[in-house]
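Fold this sequence, please.
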Amino acid sequence: MLFDFLGPDRQITKISNQIYFIPEQGMFDGNCYILGEPAGALTLIDTGNGFNIKSLLQKLTKIGVPDKRIQRVLITHCHLDHIGGLYKLLKLWKQPFEVSAHEIEAPIIEQGIKDIIVPIKDILGPLIGGIAKTLINFKPSPLQINYKLKDGDIIEADGLRLRTIHTPGHSAGSCCFYEEKLKVIFTGDTVFSANAVGRVDLKTGNASELLDSLEKLSTLEVQTLCPGHMHPILTEGTKQIKSAYELAKRMGF
């Protein structure tokens, strides 16, 4: 079942007792998710591009989710629309928080390798105006990744157990986070709703690896699929992943 959460104001929505959905706010942005109870230690999955970070923090406060309780940030992959907010948060937040990314993506983020983080030549074609200028001028500064994740690593998140699943294809170090008890998966840009999958024409992308990753994900029992773009799917997530996998095969991935 497909739920359209993106109203005109693109507000934060609680999609389960322990998951908040923060929809992408515009072009070249990405979805974010907050896990945990407001009174506990919260986990943020991806950070969006950071262009609207102050507005985002204000919205969190309005719905009773204090940003000061976010103690952990998990990164699905290193592209700007998923990690751009991280640079802003490091400046805005005084409290320390942990940052985790797959061991392949971590050095790219730590070294601030711009042509991978912001693949300008590959994406500027459809972009015009201020957003293109912003991307050209963006300079990722090196920052520390506290935990370099491997396939199978478990992250404890306020009562949830997230299993790291390495899913190369969109990028070499893309990963998903799967919570078996809730049957929920956070897929970054590996697979979306509407049978869509991540593009593979950016640096470190690989079509055959993406197909293998989709096949791996299709074996999981998934109820809720939380992608990095588009809308979450709240039921029959496995069916959606299998459908996307079969379509990718037919397209010659």
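The mean pLDDT is 89. Residues 13-250 form a domain with the Metallo-beta-lactamase; Chain A fold (CATH 3.60.15.10).
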